[in-house]
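Anyone up for a design puzzle?
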């Protein structure tokens, strides 16, 4: 039986009576202590005074200061989404890459020892975290060129958030957060939630319930989605880090947390995670969510939620409130609620509308109006406004540099870095140039400014022509890019990325190459005895060495200046009837202007851009480079037993056979094995005969039945014919041991196509690299005939082409030193007039070398980077001027500058003469080289006549220098079928330069000294 119940006082009295006096005292003390502890805990839970004192005192030491030079210990942030997105977690990697690329740390945050220890434990450092961090790009005067910050989709201050949003958020997530009656409240701890979460964790540990949520306050949620790996809580340790990080952040400025708690609401609203969207990427924050999922701006939300709850205004308010509330509720599972299961989001909305109404957060009328509004989530995200690419070419060039510099995977990641970049660009000049380039699409503007006429615009639409312009300022420390733009409204950057046939601007590279060869010959020969020089003048295998030796022999006290000047007076024929063996065939060339003397000097040829002068000059260069490498071309070609022939032939065959094998691989590589055989044999009347040759090449002893069976399988429509013809085909091709060359001759097919198709029968997935190795014997077999002594005339064709190809490899190496951008040159004399193409930026680099007296200085676009300002990760970087490289003798550079100035004064660029003047109207030295490219697709008759000719692109270029410091390039370009409608030449680029010049005047005259006749006041004039 149960004992009868007795009141507690009786139990206490009975217990006390049974205890001795000391034990009674101990019991009373314990009870008193328990009561005091309970009161103290209750007091602490209500006031948070002890927590406030503890965390605020600790936070006083969690500091940093920014000092000059690199920090002894630089922080690297946690691996949370926020830290990764803004680059804080990658600070060490970014710093290492920048320092290896020529930047140095000028200022960096020096964290306290306590802050270092906190971060080492995986806890986020307390600081005012940015809600709108992003990439900023500034010009040379700190004017904004690009701003990737989220300024339009974030609230700047707590008071900017609509009160209705704040009340709704706190009701759903953290109802006591803004309780001003508790100034020291720790926002990271809400004890009832914490105890409930702990209880659920214990139950889940024992019974695996899968329910461990419920303990996160807004403060810890901010820590979670910003600083925890993946934005998730993976265990008790993560939760502890979140609580400690939130506590230190709350007490960072002292014991009173009221302002810090408002900051938490602001951070949460601006950063709540809303999953990801196509073409947008990660969506964070209420403002970004409204824009992406509902096509609504943050500004419109504020206006709508401030409306009175009546009439049409109520409908508008209800719509915006429903959208904002939906995003606040979707934060728990954004991928589900915003994408996969929007019905669940509607149910969640209905539940909270009832709760919010009952609690008095919203009125019943507003709740009913919200229910009546469709949610209106977009199935497709609202597209961003169209990008005007013409306005972003310079900044995109900077961003492209940054991608490589910082090793970022893409522009999305780059634009989210907390980074400010200072550049060399001049925004004012950039804007003026772009405005003028855009007006070059306006026919009335073009007509007023002289763009119509001979060699200019004709009947073609001027809107199809793209203009690109860049301007640099040279110095020994580096060439600073000032203007970089074009009017092509596409992502392609014509300055840096396009491969264009710029025509006669290649003559500038060719004459630079020629003058450097002359300088080399001077250095090698000027100290030789006169007698030896005369011998060399008659016996040297190349004309350049013969001329240099003869000139030096005739001038007892030669100077390099004098030799270069004389070398420009060497005469060249302009005859267009001559045939040139180049590019593996015979070619003829024409001059742009028919009214040319039959013989002109090289100087005149450069001034007037005479093509045949440079074809012959390039032939002299090829001969020089061939002889300089020890090859005597005439002896090799005339003597079938010459020891160099075999190695040259093998080199030619290796290259030629590789190209043919690659062409076969491209042709048949995507076909299955049987379809490849069918295509090889063709579809005409010789199909079965070709197949028989192919078949017996692999199976010479096969029977007629085997041939008929395989032919019937591959060509079922001709099965009967194959069976009837099989005996005849066996007699004709079977049991003969046909070589690969025999098969190729009989099938009228390339031998490498036959070999490749047969190889695909057993190796359908083989890579080209593997096939190249396996084909060694086949390639020897295919070219065995060429090594026979009777084929020496055919060998000579290969030998001449191989020697020319090798010469162009050596020429290419010297062009690369002067900034040529591509990995090879077309082995043809036509390279001298543009067949190897160029890039405007690379051509400008060559003129920069000339401007800088032969020094190749690095091009500078980015000068400083400021990372994570006002954070414990703050680091400033500055570009360290890199050493320049002497790639051209000073005398050569000055001679080129005189030649370019002569082109403007008296030659093809005379249209630009007087375009640039100083502040008082005085002339400023202007030099340049023009070029026009007409890239055509042509078909020819057997006798060489042109049957069809179709332009596929057309360009007009002017590369120039101005005064002592500035240089640049302007290019007009049209591509595609439209190119056939235009006939403009470099005159178009010159006319565009004249129109642009006034907008450049302030920039150019700001630093140029007044100059009179001659190249400049700073550098010596080299007389023509």
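Challenge accepted. My sequence:
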């Amino acid at each position: 039986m149960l004992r009868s119940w007795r009141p507690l006082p009786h139990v206490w009295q009975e217990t006390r009576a049974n205890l001795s006096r000391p034990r009674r005292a101990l019991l009373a003390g314990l009870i008193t202590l328990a009561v005091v502890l309970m009161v103290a805990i209750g007091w602490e839970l209500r006031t948070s005074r002890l927590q406030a004192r503890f965390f605020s005192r600790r936070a006083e030491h969690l500091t940093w200061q920014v000092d000059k030079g690199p920090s002894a210990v630089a922080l690297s942030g946690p691996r949370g989404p926020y830290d990764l997105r803004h680059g804080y977690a990658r600070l060490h990697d970014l710093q290492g890459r920048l320092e290896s690329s020529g930047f140095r740390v000028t200022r960096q945050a020096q964290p306290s020892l306590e802050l270092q220890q906190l971060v080492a434990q995986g806890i986020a450092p307390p600081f005012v975290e940015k809600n709108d961090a992003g990439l900023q790009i500034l010009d040379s005067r700190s004017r904004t060129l690009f701003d990737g910050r989220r300024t339009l989709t974030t609230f700047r201050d707590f008071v900017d958030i609509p009160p209705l949003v704040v009340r709704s958020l706190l009701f759903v997530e953290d109802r006591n957060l803004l309780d001003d009656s508790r100034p020291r409240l720790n926002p990271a701890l809400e004890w009832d939630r914490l105890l409930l979460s702990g209880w659920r964790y214990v139950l889940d540990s024992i019974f695996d319930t899968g329910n461990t949520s419920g303990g996160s306050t807004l403060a810890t949620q901010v820590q979670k989605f910003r600083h925890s790996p993946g934005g998730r809580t993976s265990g008790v340790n993560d939760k502890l880090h979140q609580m400690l990080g939130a506590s230190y952040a709350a007490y960072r400025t002292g014991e009173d947390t009221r302002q810090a708690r408002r900051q938490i609401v602001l951070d949460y609203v601006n950063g709540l995670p809303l999953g990801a969207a196509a073409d947008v990427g990660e969506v964070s924050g209420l403002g970004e969510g409204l824009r992406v999922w509902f096509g609504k701006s943050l500004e419109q939300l504020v206006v709508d939620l401030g409306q009175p709850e009546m009439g049409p205004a109520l409908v508008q308010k209800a719509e915006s409130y429903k959208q904002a509330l939906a995003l606040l509720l979707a934060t728990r599972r954004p991928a589900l609620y915003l994408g996969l299961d929007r019905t669940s989001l509607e149910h969640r909305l209905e539940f909270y509308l009832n709760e919010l109404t009952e609690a008095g957060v919203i009125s019943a009328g507003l709740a009913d109006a919200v229910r009546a509004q469709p949610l209106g989530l977009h199935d497709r995200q609202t597209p961003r406004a169209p990008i005007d690419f013409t306005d972003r070419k310079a900044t995109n060039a900077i961003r492209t540099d940054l991608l490589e510099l910082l090793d970022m995977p893409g522009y999305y990641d780059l634009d989210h870095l907390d980074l400010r970049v200072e550049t060399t660009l001049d925004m004012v000049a950039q804007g003026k140039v772009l405005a003028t380039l855009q007006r070059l699409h306006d026919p009335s503007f073009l007509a007023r400014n002289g763009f119509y006429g001979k060699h200019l615009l004709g009947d073609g639409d001027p809107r199809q022509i793209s203009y690109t312009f860049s301007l640099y300022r040279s110095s020994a420390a580096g060439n600073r890019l000032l203007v970089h733009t074009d009017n092509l409204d596409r992502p392609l950057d014509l300055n840096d990325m396009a491969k264009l046939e710029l025509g006669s601007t290649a003559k500038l590279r060719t004459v630079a190459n020629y003058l450097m060869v002359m300088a080399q010959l001077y250095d090698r020969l000027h100290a030789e005895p006169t007698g030896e020089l005369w011998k060399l003048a008659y016996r040297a295998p190349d004309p350049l060495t013969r001329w240099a030796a003869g000139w030096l022999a005739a001038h007892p006290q030669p100077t390099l200046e004098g030799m270069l000047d004389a070398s420009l007076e060497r005469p060249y024929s302009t005859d267009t009837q001559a045939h040139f063996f180049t590019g593996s065939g015979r070619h003829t060339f024409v001059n742009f202007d028919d009214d040319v003397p039959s013989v002109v000097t090289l100087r005149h040829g450069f001034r007037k851009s005479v093509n045949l002068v440079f074809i012959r000059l390039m032939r002299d260069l090829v001969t020089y480079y061939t002889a300089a490498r020890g090859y005597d071309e005439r002896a090799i070609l005339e003597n079938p037993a010459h020891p160099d022939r075999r190695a040259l032939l093998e080199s030619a065959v290796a290259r030629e056979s590789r190209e043919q094998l690659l062409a076969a691989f491209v042709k048949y590589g995507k076909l299955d094995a049987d379809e490849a055989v069918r295509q090889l044999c063709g579809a005409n009347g010789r199909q079965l005969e070709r197949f028989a040759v192919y078949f017996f090449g692999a199976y010479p002893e096969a029977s007629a039945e085997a041939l008929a069976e395989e032919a019937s399988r591959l060509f079922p429509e001709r099965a009967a014919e194959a069976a009837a013809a099989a005996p005849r085909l066996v007699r004709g091709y079977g049991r003969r041991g046909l070589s690969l060359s025999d098969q190729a001759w009989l099938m009228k097919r390339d031998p490498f196509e036959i070999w490749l198709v047969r190889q695909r029968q057993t190796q359908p997935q083989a890579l080209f690299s593997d096939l190249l190795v396996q084909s060694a014997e086949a390639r020897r077999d295919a070219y065995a005939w060429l090594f026979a002594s009777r084929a020496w005339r055919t060998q000579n064709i290969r030998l001449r082409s191989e020697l020319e190809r090798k010469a162009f490899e050596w020429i290419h190496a010297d062009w690369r030193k002067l900034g040529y951008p591509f990995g090879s040159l077309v082995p043809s004399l036509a390279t001298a007039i543009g067949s190897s193409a160029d890039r405007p930026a690379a051509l400008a680099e060559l003129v920069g070398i000339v401007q800088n007296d032969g020094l190749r200085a690095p091009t500078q676009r980015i000068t400083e980077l400021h990372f994570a300002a006002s954070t414990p990760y703050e680091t400033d970087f500055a570009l360290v001027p890199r050493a320049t490289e002497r790639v051209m003798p000073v005398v050569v550079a000055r001679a080129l500058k005189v030649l370019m100035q002569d082109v403007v004064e008296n030659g093809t660029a005379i249209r630009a003469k007087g375009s640039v003047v100083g502040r008082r109207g005085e002339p400023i030295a202007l030099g340049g080289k023009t070029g026009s490219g007409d890239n055509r697709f042509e078909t020819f008759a057997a006798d060489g006549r042109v049957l069809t000719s179709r332009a596929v692109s057309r360009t007009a270029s002017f590369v120039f220098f101005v005064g002592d410091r500035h240089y640049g390039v302007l290019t007009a370009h049209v591509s595609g079928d439209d190119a056939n409608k235009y006939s403009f030449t470099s005159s178009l680029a010159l006319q565009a330069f004249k129109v642009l010049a006034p907008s450049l005047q302030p920039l150019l005259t700001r630093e140029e000294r007044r100059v009179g006749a001659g190249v400049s006041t700073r550098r010596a004039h080299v007389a023509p």
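A detail worth pointing out: Residues 71 and 110 are 5 Å apart (CA to CA).
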